[in-house]
Amino acid sequence: MSRLATRVLSSLGLQTEFYELSLNQRIKIAHAPLVITVILLCAIYALLLPEILHQPAFQTGLVLLLLITVAAAVVPWNRLWYPTYWILPLMDFVAIGFLYNGSQGLALGVYLLSVFPVFWMAWSRVSTVGARVLSFVGPLIIVWYPAFASEIPITGQRLAAPILGPLVTLAVAVTVTLVRQDMAAQQAALAHKDELLEKALAESTERSELLDVVLNAIDVGVLVVGANGSAVHKNARMQVLDDRVRPAGMKHTQEQDLLFFGADRTTALAPDERPVGRAMKGESFQDVLIWSGPAGNQMALSCSARILRNENGFNGAVITFNDITALADALRAKDDFVSNVSHELRTPLTSIIGYLDLAQAEAEDTGLTGTIPQALDVSLRNSERLLSLVSDLLTAASGSVALDPRPFSVDAGISAGLRSASPRAAAGGVVLAAEHAPGLTVHGDPGRLAQVMDNLLSNAIKYSPDGGTVTVRVWTEPGRAFLQVQDTGMGMDDADQRELFTKFFRTGAVRRAGIPGAGLGLAITKNIVEAHGGTISLCSEPGRGSTFTVAIPQPQPPAGTFAPDVEIAKTASSLE
């Protein structure tokens, strides 16, 4: 009934569902099919069988149906007890009974009109059992009334002949009630799902609004791109950054149009080297520094990206842009200051050391004894230490390392390094050991790599205050050479290891132990190793020592052979 009524409403241009109508409207619509059918039936009878319209019983049925129709239209059923409206389909049975009785001997099948009130009651939610009973009893009374009203004796044949009609209406009622119950269950399930969906939508909207508030509250640009690289979401900070890095006069741009530059601040980044371009290749990265914006108003941006994946693979990326211009300017100012001060200190220090050397030589020539020669030794040693610190500051401030790579002898390099470190090792009770294959030759800058080994040896000895063993190992593998310095000293925890190669960083244990140093040696060592295209790694544990491992790429040997003896001799003499 509801679907039929809904289709009728749709044909009339009304989009309201049947169950959403008021009770009065539903009653009018439910009664209308019977009225329309009777009107069409009367029209056909008027043309083909006019005498049937003159039958008193038929006319009584029409008048009664008219009164029922008026009652359906004017009575405020929604103000009455809900089941009261069942009086209408029950009265429809009476009207249909008069129409059927009036058509006896003239027309067949008029009793089939009882299907309309049967369907109406069966579809209603008043009483399923009552609808089924009345759907059988009502039509049964209609078809049996002529037999009881006539003077002809009642026989089993006369009663059984029309019984099929009531049985059919009963079957219709049972079917309709079952369908209604099933649809009611489906409607309840759909209503429950709608409620869950509305709740989920409300929660999703609330979370989305909360996420927008959080993203807009942070001072970091956040960009979310989809699988095709197009922007899905930008927070407020990202929109501000977009305006700053967009070329003048352009409102809608792609990433390749934005003003992104490399470390030199002038070379534009290639499309696949830009943050979104790298993320679209499936690359995750962290704290990548790029410069952006027009010349004279550039920003330093620290970019990071994380990849989004689903069951189909790549599904986009989340990219963050953090403006670190102030930090970059501060670091550059610090390096400039350190470089300038170091340059100013280096010249007088060199002069002081020169004069101390002369004074020490003159004291030896004259045979001077007492506290003066000792004071000269202390002054010279501290001046050389200060000059070494100034040199480290200059190296750290410059950030660049000049290399002169060539083959050199490992034997000569290790021997020179151990000889240089042996006085400090002996003073601290540290035993030095070396493990390497005799005659081993590697390719690199001998002076810079000697500086790497000296720094690592110095650290190993310095951070073994209770003595121990420091072992230097060198070996090669296809395409790489390795330098390893292992000590049995104090070691360090994971937090210190993460910051160890940062300029001026010194662990808390070292500061508490009063071990001298500026925290530059390992930073310089890392720069030298990376200038060679290599890597440096650390394995350490508090109380059990540390192991530094340097890996340097090695070129493939040429078709011919070089003369290593000459290079070894040069390197050995320079190290000595």
Please describe what this structure looks like.
- This protein has 576 residues and is α+β, with helices and mostly antiparallel strands.
- Helix content is 55%, strand content 16%.
- It is built from 18 helices and 13 strands.
- A hairpin with a 3-residue loop joins strand 12 and strand 13 (545-553).
- The longest helix has 54 residues, at 164-217.
- The protein is rod-shaped and about 165 Å long.
- The N and C termini lie far apart (107 Å).
Short synopsis of the structure:
By secondary structure, this protein is an alpha+beta fold.
Distance between the termini: 107 Å
Radius of gyration: 50 Å
Can you give the mean pLDDT?
Answer: 81
Order of strands across the main sheet:
2-1-6-5-4-3
For the secondary structure, the number of strands is 13
Proportion of helical residues: 55-70%
In DSSP terms, counting alpha (H) and pi (I) runs of 4 or more, how many helices? 18
> How would you describe the shape?
rod-shaped
As residue ranges, the low-confidence spans are: 559-576
Please describe the biggest sheet, giving its number of strands, its sense, and whether it closes into a barrel: 6 strands, antiparallel
The computed structural class is: alpha+beta
Q: How much β-strand is present in the residues?
A: 15-25%
Features:
alpha+beta; 576 residues; six-stranded antiparallel beta sheet; five-stranded mixed beta sheet; 16% strand; rod-shaped
How does the SSE layout of this entry go?
Blueprint: H1 2-11, H2 23-48, H3 56-74, H4 87-102, H5 115-123, H6 128-149, H7 156-160, H8 164-217, E1 221-225, E2 231-234, H9 236-245, E3 260-261, H10 275-280, E4 285-292, E5 299-310, E6 313-323, H11 325-366, H12 371-398, E7 406-409, H13 410-428, E8 430-436, E9 441-444, H14 446-462, E10 468-477, E11 480-487, H15 494-499, H16 508-513, H17 521-531, E12 535-541, E13 545-553, H18 564-575
